[in-house]
């Protein structure tokens, strides 16, 4: 079995001539960090300029030949390409290179597989992997598939699935779907119970490695795994958080986003993500440290849109202010139009201000209150014009008025209640 030291990977990145060098550099750093998370060692990197994708080999045939030559000269045992390539392109490249080829989706799937702990996350990732592998089974020789084991983390993908044929894969996907349905049913019951209690809930969302779990731990004393690795968190964890005004809210930490998150994964994890997005408000965490902090933030915003949650109340947390950061990106983040707070979990900066903001958001939330008032209707003049009367009900003992009020005014209205 291959060890980390033996991994000897040729990394191919492709650059469109119009893309600026800062973004190109960031993308290279990101795939390197993804591979680092997998424990894969890159020994050689080729950046190819690519105007247009070749339908047979993704990169140009001449580039594929050049990569084959370099791979053989440097003794590489596998090739990673930082792009989503089709099964056909992959197969053709493997033939030219005589080495297993792993694309960006395979890298991300392998990280998810490595980091999944709960039964649900494991089922979700197994389904995504089975779907990824299904069109790739044809034409793969057993030998090549076994060689995939040469790339760490891809091992599971090659070894566990290869002896399965397509029909068996389909049956497995079916069984997984049923198991996931069962889990979702339980989740829906829990959700209903939570809704009934009208507890305000916040979801921490954002680019991977931004510090979501660190914030969760700092605010709730939860013991969620924090790691300087991408996709450390795959399961949603929810904890109670007591605000300074005494109110208890819920805070959820969940899976991070990345640019070009495989669609298969978004749909495999959609129920987990939806649960988070069902919260009353979204707390978007973005680290300032990344040279592409603004683009990363836009990826989060777009993923939230894709999941249909763009209308939720949002708060932006700009984390890791203790690190060096890019001024231009930071100004753009602050001017985006979402209320923000600047924090450092490491240096304990801004966490108190964050709690204040969360409190303010819960205060803005509207709720329904029923007042018991004197029958003479004198209470009407005391109802603020901003608050909507939903119903009035004259009963023998009192006039009952239902109104929608902001939480912040609950105490004011409670005082109007007839004793
Ligand atoms: N310097 C600095 N490091 C931080 C800060 N907050 C978090 N980190 C570090 O950043 C890394 C990632 O933190 P996590 O809390 O795991 O990030 P996450 O957003 O939950 O990441 P995923 O679950 O992988 O998506 C860890 O090494 C943390 O210790 C901060 O304010 N300053
Ligand atoms: Mg996390």
Number of strands: 13
Unreliable runs: 1-6, 141-163
In the sheet with the most strands, the strands line up as: 6-7-5-8-9-10
Q: Structural class of the helix and strand makeup?
A: alpha/beta
The bound ligands are: guanosine-5'-triphosphate, magnesium ion
Give the tally of structural domains. Answer: 3
What is the average per-residue confidence, as pLDDT, rounded to a whole number?
Answer: 85
**Largest sheet geometry:** 6 strands, mixed
**What's the overall geometry?**
elongated
CATH architecture of the largest domain: 3-Layer(aba) Sandwich
Strand content: 15-25%
Helix content: 40-55%
CATH class identity of the largest domain: Alpha Beta
Taking Cα atoms only, what radius of gyration do you get, to the nearest Å? 26 Å
Distance between the termini: 77 Å
Alpha plus pi helix count: 15
- Using the coordinates shown, work out and report the CATH topology of the largest domain: Rossmann fold
Order of helices and strands: EHEHEHEHHHHHEHEEHHEHEHEHEEEH
CATH homologous superfamily of the largest domain - what is it? P-loop containing nucleotide triphosphate hydrolases
Question: Can you put this structure into words, describing what you see?
Answer:
This protein is of the alpha/beta class. The protein folds into three domains: 158 residues, GTPase HflX, N-terminal domain (Rossmann fold, 3-Layer(aba) Sandwich); 166 residues, Rossmann fold (3-Layer(aba) Sandwich), CATH 3.40.50.300; 51 residues. The chain starts with 8 loop residues before the first strand and ends with a helix. It is 43% helix and 19% strand. Helix 1 crosses helix 4 and helix 4 packs antiparallel against helix 5. It has a six-stranded mixed sheet with strand order 6-7-5-8-9-10, with helices on both faces.
């Amino acid at each position: 079995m291959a060890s980390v030291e033996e991994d000897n990977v040729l990394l191919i990145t492709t650059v469109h001539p119009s893309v600026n060098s800062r973004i190109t550099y960031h993308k290279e750093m990101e795939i390197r960090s993804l591979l680092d998370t997998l424990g894969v060692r890159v020994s050689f990197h080729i950046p190819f300029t690519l105007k247009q994708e070749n339908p047979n080999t993704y990169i140009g045939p001449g580039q594929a030949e050049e990569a084959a030559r370099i791979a053989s000269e440097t003794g590489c045992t596998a090739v990673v390409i930082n792009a989503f390539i089709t099964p056909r392109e992959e197969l053709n490249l493997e033939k030219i290179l005589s080495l297993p080829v792993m694309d960006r989706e395979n890298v991300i799937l392998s990280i998810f597989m490595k980091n999944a702990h709960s039964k649900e996350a494991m089922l979700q990732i197994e389904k995504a992997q089975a779907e990824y592998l299904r069109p790739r089974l044809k034409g793969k020789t057993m030998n090549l598939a076994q060689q995939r084991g040469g790339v760490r983390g891809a091992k599971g993908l090659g070894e566990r699935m290869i002896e399965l044929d397509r029909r068996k894969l389909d049956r497995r996907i079916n069984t997984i779907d049923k198991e996931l349905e069962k889990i979702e049913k339980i989740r829906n019951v829990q959700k209903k119970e939570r809704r009934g209690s009208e507890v305000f809930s916040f979801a921490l969302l954002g680019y991977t490695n931004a510090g979501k779990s660190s914030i969760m731990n700092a605010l709730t004393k939860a013991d969620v795994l924090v790691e300087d690795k991408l996709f450390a968190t795959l399961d949603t964890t929810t904890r109670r958080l007591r605000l300074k005004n005494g109110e208890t809210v819920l805070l959820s930490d969940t899976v991070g986003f990345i640019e070009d998150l495989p669609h298969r994964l978004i749909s495999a994890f959609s129920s987990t993500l939806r649960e988070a997005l069902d919260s009353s408000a979204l707390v978007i965490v973005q680290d300032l440290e990344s040279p592409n902090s603004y683009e990363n933030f836009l990826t989060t915003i777009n993923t939230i849109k894709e999941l249909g949650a763009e209308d939720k109340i949002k708060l932006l947390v700009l984390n890791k202010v203790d690190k060096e950061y890019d001024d231009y990106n930071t100004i753009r983040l602050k001017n985006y139009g979402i209320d923000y707070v600047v924090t450092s979990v490491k240096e304990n900066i801004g966490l108190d201000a964050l709690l204040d903001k969360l409190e303010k958001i819960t205060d803005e939330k509207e709720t329904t209150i029923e007042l018991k008032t004197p029958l003479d209707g004198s209470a009407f003049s005391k109802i603020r014009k901003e608050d909507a009367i939903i119903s009035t009900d004259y009963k023998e003992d009192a006039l009952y008025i239902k109104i929608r009020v902001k939480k912040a005014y609950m105490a004011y209205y409670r005082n109007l209640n007839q004793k």
